[in-house]
Amino acid sequence: MMAESGDTRETITVNGSMIEVKNALVEEMYTSNSRTGYLIISYAVAGENDMVNMELVQLNIGWDTILIDQFGETISLCSIVKGTYVNAAFSAVMTRSIPPQSNAYRVIAMLEVTSYVVTTDRIVRIDPDNHFVYTGNPNDERGQMRFLITNATKILDQNGAPITQADLEPGEMVRIKHASFQTASIPPQTNAYVIEVLPS
């Protein structure tokens, strides 16, 4: 099958006995228990005369397969639906079937963030080594929240321009869009999707 213009699917890279692909498109998913099953993905392959072709491969998902979202959170196979983009690492050893089958080592699914909570508060502490930003009561851990900054977290200044975690400072008022779940720790921890610095 031919690639369409504007397609973001990328070609594979081979590292010894492992194949890696970024932005592969899930064409089909099957699971009987929400944890094991398979994904059929399509990815780009360079052809002749600058043509780009699409190839299919069936990734067999076992109990040892790492299944996570773009924030590093463990997910179930049910979370990955047709049309989801994934980054995958799988065995270079494949069956001769159509499509070929391979055992998946790791699948990172780029899931749409459909549910989130917004917290507006002041930064009380920043832990750059562990990628945490703390908000809330500076004198009481039980009145604080700890937000994990991942590679997918967007950080914006007062004008909406992208900045880095190093640009954030204690005392700044921020609006944080974050996951609706949180750990039972003190302070509770959750993943930050977007951090916006507000006018003080």
Short structural description:
By secondary structure, the chain is an all-beta fold. It has no helices and 12 strands.
Protein traits:
12 strands, 5-stranded mixed β-barrel, 5-stranded mixed beta barrel, 200 residues, mainly beta, 2 domains, OB fold (Dihydrolipoamide Acetyltransferase, E2P)
Notes on the structure:
This protein folds into two domains: about 10-110, OB fold (Dihydrolipoamide Acetyltransferase, E2P) (Beta Barrel); about 115-195, Copper binding periplasmic protein CusF (OB fold (Dihydrolipoamide Acetyltransferase, E2P)). It is built from no helices and twelve strands. It has strands at about 10-15, 20-30, 35-45, 50-60, 65-70, 85-90, 100-110, 115-125, 130-135, 145-155, 175-180, 190-195. Strand 8 (about 115-125) and strand 9 (about 130-135) form a beta hairpin. The protein is elongated and about 65 Å long.
What's the structural blueprint in terms of helices and strands?
Blueprint: E1 12-15, E2 18-31, E3 37-46, E4 52-61, E5 66-69, E6 85-91, E7 101-110, E8 117-127, E9 132-136, E10 144-156, E11 173-178, E12 189-197
Strand content: over 45%
Shape: elongated
Q: Tell me the total number of β-strands.
A: 12
CATH fold label of the largest domain: OB fold (Dihydrolipoamide Acetyltransferase, E2P)
Count of discrete domains: 2
| CATH top level assignment of the largest domain | Mainly Beta
Biggest sheet statistics: 5 strands, mixed, barrel
- Tell me the strand order in the biggest sheet: 2-3-4-7-6
What is the residue-averaged pLDDT? 87
Output the structural class.
mainly beta
Low-pLDDT stretches are 1-6
Q: How far apart are the first and last residues' alpha carbons, in Å?
A: 54 Å
**CATH architecture descriptor text of the largest domain:** Beta Barrel
Taking all Cα atoms into account, the compactness measure Rg is 20 Å
Number of helices: 0
Order of helices and strands: EEEEEEEEEEEE
